[in-house]
Amino acid sequence: MDFTKFVSMLESRSLYFPRADKLEDPFEGSLTAEQVGHRKDSLEGYPNEWIEELLPKFRRICTRHTFLNCWHMNDGESAAMWDLYLKADQGICIESTYESLIESIDDEQDIFVSKIQYIDYESRIPPGWGADGHIGDTITPFTHKRTSYEHEQELRAIIHDLPWHSEEGEREITPDEIRSSDLDESAYEPGRSVNVDLSELIEGIHVSPESDKWIRDLLVDVCEKYEIDPDLVAQSKIGENPSF
């Protein structure tokens, strides 16, 4: 994240979950081409409106009610991830663990955490989606991505808050509800914040390999202000000079 987002996280003591369709991958929440083909076969005899319009619109509605917080899993820093997601020389990388992420969440929202599985979206139906193209739940498309994103090695926390879910359980959404649903972006919240215990979450703070020393010094001061252990702040080792 950039420096301002880091300070915002400290100030709000929360993690931000942008809406799924706000992320850069337009395939978020979509089905594979193979699955869509099977779906058409399995629904033969249904009205074309249901197959061609309502089901695709239903999937887009799901993206409007799904919020994602994404992490890169690795034993060390990734030069590629710094280059891909850093827009300036003042970037910050937060280090944590799966267990610490889970334990740090201090919020009543239902949150599902999963590793992403990477598959060929042209020729594969993911395991558990059924040979006929049906899926047993609506969250599964958000736990899979195309193999072109495999370099991300992603772990994501997911809020999947569909309007037809309630404390009484899940009900089927009707065709009329799908028809009347507004897909205009302004009709939906752009993201959600989730309260976290930052002292539990943060196990390290890595400063961009391109940043000057004063950025690290500033981060130390900011961490002290927000009662985060300043010893957690370290310059990225990717920028170190080689030995010959």
UniProtKB/TrEMBL annotation:
Organism superkingdom: Archaea
Protein name, as recorded: DUF2971 domain-containing protein
Organism in which the protein naturally occurs: Halobaculum lipolyticum
